[in-house]
Amino acid sequence: MLCREYVLEPIKGEFMCRVLCYPGQSHDCCIERVNEMYSLGIDEVYSFGDTLIGSGVRVVGKGHAAVVVLARHVSHGVVALKIRRTDSKRHSMETEAQILMKVFNTGYAPRPYVYSTNMIVREFVDGCTLEKLIELYRGERNALLSSLKSLVMGALAMDLMGVDLVEISRPHSQVVYLCCAPERPFFVDFESARLTSRPCNMTKVISFMVSRVKSLGIDVVDSEKSMKLLGLAKDYKACSDNVCREAVAKHILDILSNI
Question: Which domain of life is it from (predicted)?
Answer without folding.
Answer: Archaea
